[in-house]
Specification:
The protein is mainly β and 210 residues long. The protein contains no helices and 19 strands. The strands form 5 sheets. Strands 1-2-3-4 form a 4-stranded antiparallel sheet, with no helix packed on it. It has a 4-stranded antiparallel sheet with strand order 5-6-7-8, with no helix packed on it. A 4-stranded antiparallel sheet has the order 9-10-11-12, with no helix packed on it.
């Protein structure tokens, strides 16, 4: 998993190594975050982190993840600001926080994949609400058009959702062929609206919505 910040630097997750790498746009390693090969649950350790999202003031959030059940928050200089959540099925808890994104107001959306829900938090981590009607969210992205795109791996489709949680539409179908999404695992949306879906079988598919 990799994400670009507002300066086009690249934050790359090595989930098996429990570490994040920060690269310049030309590929120079600038910083590392975490301790390679060492699991933990604090400002200098992760346990199989899964995704990254950026806030309005340059801060960023890490869903952490396969081993831990938390969101870790850092400022733009990679200083640890705190964390929230714990393992569980209650509101504000996580079973598997597999993906994370933020909207235009800075709210934080976490795809709790195994629990089939998306939980919504304030930038500081206060639980606000949850969506339990959009399938099994493997990945979620807030796009420039003001909508969320959810990779629903269980139902082999991409679901488009507005900020109130209303489903606007979806595309995709079961199978391993062109346009089929049975092994869909991750999603990205380009500035022009094109949607890239990555599959566990090694495929990547590009969709243009018109």
């Amino acid at each position: 998993m990799a994400k670009c910040d507002r300066d086009d630097n690249i934050l790359l997750i090595d989930d098996g190594g429990h570490i994040l790498y920060l690269y310049s746009p030309d590929g120079k390693l600038l910083r590392t975050l975490g301790t390679k090969g060492v699991k933990g649950e604090d400002g200098t350790h992760f346990n199989q982190p899964t995704d990254i999202a950026f806030g309005l003031r340059g801060e960023f959030y890490v869903s952490d993840g396969y081993g831990n059940r938390r969101v870790a928050r850092f400022d733009k200089n990679l200083r640890f600001l705190g964390q929230w959540s714990s393992e569980g099925e209650g509101e504000g808890q996580f079973v598997l926080p597999h993906a994370i994104t933020t909207d235009a107001e800075g709210l934080v959306y976490v795809a709790d994949r195994t629990k089939w829900r998306v939980e919504v938090f304030s930038p500081e981590g206060n639980f606000l609400r949850q969506w339990t009607h959009i399938g099994k969210p493997f990945s979620i992205v807030y796009a420039q058009d003001g909508y969320f795109y959810v990779c629903d791996g269980q139902n082999a489709r991409v679901t488009k959702v507005d900020r109130s949680g209303r489903i606007v539409g979806f595309f995709g179908s079961p199978g391993g062929g062109c346009g089929q999404l049975s092994t869909a695992h991750d999603i990205a949306v380009a500035s022009n609206g094109d949607i890239l879906v990555a599959h566990l079988d090694g495929r990547a598919q590009l969709f243009t919505l018109g």
